Amino acid sequence: MTALSRRVLLTGAAATAGALALQPGAALAAAGAPAEEAFAPNPARLRQTLDYAVAKLRQTAPTVATFPEETRFEKWIPVNDGGWVGGFWPGLLWLGFVDSRDPQFEKWAREAALRLTPRIPDTGTHDMGFLFYPSWVTAYRLTGEASWRDGAVRAAESLSKRYNTAGKFIRAWGSLGSTGNAGRTIIDTMMNLDLMFWATEVTGDGKYADIAANHARTTIKHFIRPDGSTPHVFDFDPVSGTAVGPNTVQGYSATSTWARGQAWGIYGFATTYRRTGDRQFLNAATRMADHILPYLAESPVPIWDYRSPLAPNDIRDSSAGAITACGLLDLAKITGNARYQTTALTVLDALSRTCLTTRSDRHDAVLARGTKNRRAENGIEVSLPYGDYYLMEAILRVLKPREIAKAIGL
Fold this sequence. Notes:
By secondary structure, this protein is mainly alpha-helical. α12 (about 320-335) runs antiparallel to α13. Helices cover about 55% and strands about 10% of the residues.
């Protein structure tokens, strides 16, 4: 009997999953049911999805003692120190509070956010924005309590120490002083910059915003290709700051377009434009968004890498869809471009209709069909805390724009 590798099995699963993702009624038609209508903006369905998410959080929160990282067999698997995802669980609970105004959500959110306190002085990661913006900055915005502000500012100070002055970039990985990955930055870092802009806003110290803006300019110069696509990674000589070239860890290749990375960039550049008013950042966000609109028109739940050789029949990443929807909604508000709004709402409709965990009462998460790292065959067809978080954020941007604007600073 010939042994089958996990990659071969996943390839077969990808073909099935990808094919079903392309047509909204495909699964029902296969079962003999009539096909459903095409994916389209549907605010009433979004309200149902948000209600489901809040109810799921209410059900799951009492059982979560640390930080969910991904699901296995429909249950959250924790990462005890928070890893890079620790901010999303308290962030989800804050979003539950934003929608429901239930003080129990506030209590859970406070408790979860405080568990991140030991990470405040961590200079070994670029993910301080992911960790402390949805948790501590949102806590400060909603409560006005100085302790949340002061802790988040200290987290921004920790992040500032990772800035490479020669190359004008924030180092992604590796402890300070180590040589491995010393010149490496990634597209994801665009999402950590808002912690720096916020730190300048509340302290008056311009160094944080300067670092953030310089990093964003470097990202424009070295990441964004002429067609608006991006690689996951770019390497520099850490001493001279000289560019070495693109690479990848989570995308298909150094020349491909990892869907979640593209989403991070769209969201991050739109936010950077709002903080600075500098149109080069808006142009970067729109170029990146325009690149993926044709892909989303064909299939609103993004394939994990837009240039996968198995496209369009490959594994999807629902988390990339949720993040993309947030970025497109931001761009729609900034530019008035109806294509961004319509595409975002269509993505949210597709997520609501094909990716929720509604078929299992025991499931801990809200959004299924996430892909953590397809390249490493790690976390395929799972739920991810950032998928749930950005799904809720996107829907709140549509249904409760004033409330979410206060919570996250839109």
